[in-house]
Every structure is written in C-alpha cells, then in structure tokens.
Design goal:
By secondary structure, this protein is mainly alpha-helical. It has one domain. It is about 70% helix and about 0% strand. The chain contains 18 helices and four strands. The strands form two sheets. A two-stranded antiparallel ribbon has the order 1-2. A two-stranded antiparallel sheet has the order 3-4.
C-alpha cells in the first residue's frame, strides 16, 4: 500500500493517473486486449518486425475475462483486481513455505523481503507475475508436504500463466524423480499423477500456438524470436552488458545488471543453505531463463520476481539480526522500503522503459 501511495504521488506530480499507469502499461495492454478480443492481433511497427499476441500465455487474460463477465468492471480495473488478489495469495503461499521450513518469523521476513524487491511495483500492476508466484508458492508448498496431485495441478496452471512458468513443473518433476529414486519406485499413484499433470499447461499452450501458426514444434518459439526473445545461453545478455560497460546507458540498465548479479549470488547462498531440492530446481530454472535469454534486458528483474526462494537466506539473516539488534534490522528494512518505493515509482512514471 505504501508503495502504491508513493507511486500515486509521483504520478500526480507528473500529471498522470496512477490507476491508468498500473492497469495499462506495456504488456498489460496486450493481456487486456486478449481478454477483450481473444488472440489474433499482430503489431507491425516497421517493415520486417511483427509482434504477435500469441507470445502471451492465456491464464491471466482468461481470469480478467472471467472477472469482467461476473462483475461490472472495465478490463483495466478487472486486471488490477486479479493481480492484487493473486499478490495476496502469493504472499500467503510464500509465508507458508518459509514458515514450514524455518518457522513463522522467517516466513514473515520472507514475505517482507519479497514485497520490498526493487521491481515489486509490478505486483500492483496488471501483470502476470503475481499469478505465477501464487501458483508457484502453493505448488511448492504442496510438494514439500507430499501432496502430489495438488502440486501437479497448480504447476499446470502456472505453465499457462507465463513462459517461465515451466520452472514450477521442473520443480515438481525433479522432486518426484528424487522420491521415486529414494523409495526405489515404490510410490503412490498420486505422485505419478502429479508428475504427469505438472508440464501439461505449458506444453499444451506451446503446442497450440505451434498448431495455429502451422509449425507444431517451433511455432511458439518463432513468435518469441520475432519479439527479439530467444534462449542463447546468455550470449545476447553478455553483449548487452559489454556495450553497457563500454558506453554507459540509462539508470535502468545498470540497476538491472546489479539485480541479476544479486540473483546469481543469492542462488549460490541458497545452495550453500542446503534448501530443499524443489526450491533449488524452481529458482535455478527461473534464473537460467532470465540470464540465458536475450532481448528485453531491462525486464530480467521482473522475470526473477517469482523466484522468492532466493530470499530465504536473507530472510533467515534478517530474523537473526532482528533478534540480536532490532534497530539494525529496522534500518535495513527502511532502506529497502525506500529503494523499492522510489525505484518502483521511477520505473512506472518516469523511466519510459518496458517493464
């Protein structure tokens, strides 16, 4: 709420409406267009460039369409309702995972740190990250508790939310494989059912796009390549970083580089912390997609927003600090809040850079 209030103040000073910025910025317009009219729109800003709405997964626009059907709201307002509801569900799921592993204090600290990430303003916008994070958190919680069917169903839904939603299916499959190995194949049919369900959402949409484009296996990836997005093992990102270091660029890009580097460091800390394998697999796939993908370098921190397990070592450290030196913990949280609120308002109101 405080972050949204800070953004509203900055937006008002700049002569913009806060709700319009939150509900209709960048990718939000594509999602709302799909919700209102279905798929089939292609933007051709210049010769040889074609941006198709098939690059956007269907769960979020489907939820927006459902809200507008039931409640008399505009599509922008409905998008915000979906995002805010999903963000609340995600916070509950993140708390549940943290509390299950390390107690309620760490669960609370984990939610706090996730809500104060530099790009957490996206959680208040008509974007898909809150939906993916909510599904991922509860799927991982189900895996940790051995509820395999629930884990598979939620992973399948996560695969319909975003391209990197496949990370949830990867976590479920890795956990299931380890359980089969540990029990030498003597596992419940529920595990096999959950493992079979987990990748269905992501793979079904990719194959549907392929069929629609006439290229069953590569059609979706061709759509993404036309947007400038491809997985090249980080080559495009490294070339961009080289140009950034040699020539400098806007403030958003150095900040992006810093956040992605922090994500790599936090993953190393998560490994050293001996986190459960499903959390490592989930975070590792999200990090691999963000680092290894080319195109839209400034969006990489947003792609890492659902990777909340990366924050577990920091949450544990914050709890220890709060118990030993409460004032130090208060200063740290205050500094993170100031960075999050200020940078979020800058991104949405001032930067004019794709989120």
């Amino acid at each position: 709420m405080l972050g949204a209030a800070a953004l509203a103040l900055v937006a008002r000073a700049a002569g913009h409406g806060a709700l319009a910025l939150l509900g209709r910025s960048w990718d939000s317009r594509w999602y709302l267009g799909i919700a209102a009219h279905g798929y089939g729109h292609t933007l051709r800003p210049r010769p040889g460039v074609a941006y198709s709405d098939l690059a956007f997964f269907p769960l979020y626009p489907g939820l927006v369409r459902a809200v507008t059907t039931v409640v008399p709201l505009g599509d922008g307002a409905a998008g915000l309702v979906v995002s805010w509801t999903a963000a609340a569900a995600a916070a509950c799921g993140i708390y549940a995972v943290g509390a299950r592993l390390h107690g309620r204090a760490v669960g609370t600290a984990l939610v706090l740190l996730w809500g104060l990430l530099p790009h957490s303003v996206v959680l208040s916008m008509a974007y898909t990250e809150p939906v993916l994070t909510a599904l991922a958190a509860w799927s991982l919680y189900a895996v940790l508790g051995g509820r395999w069917v629930w884990a598979g169903v939620l992973a399948a839904l996560a695969g319909l939310a975003r391209p990197n939603g496949c990370a949830v299916a990867a976590a479920v499959l890795v956990a299931a494989a380890c359980e089969v190995w540990r029990r030498r194949g003597k596992v419940s049919h529920r595990l096999w059912t959950g493992a079979a369900l987990a990748p269905l959402g992501w793979s079904a949409y990719v194959l549907w796009v392929g069929r629609r484009t006439g290229n069953p296996l590569d059609g979706y990836f061709e759509v993404q390549r036309r947007w400038g997005s491809r997985f090249d093992f980080g080559r495009g990102a490294l070339l961009f970083v080289r140009r950034l270091l040699l020539h400098g660029d806007r403030f958003v890009f150095p900040m992006t580089l810093l956040i992605v580097a922090a994500g790599v460091l936090l993953f190393a800390l998560l490994l050293a912390d001996r986190a459960p394998l499903p959390l490592i697999a989930y975070s590792g796939v999200l990090l691999l997609i963000a680092v290894g993908g080319s195109g839209f370098f400034e969006s990489k921190p947003r792609f890492l927003l659902p990777a909340f397990p990366l924050l577990i070592p920091l949450a544990r450290a914050l709890v220890r600090t709060a118990r030993a030196r409460p004032w130090h913990a208060t200063v740290v949280v205050g500094a993170l809040a100031g960075l999050s609120f200020g940078y979020g308002a800058y991104l949405v109101v001032i930067a004019h850079t794709p989120l």
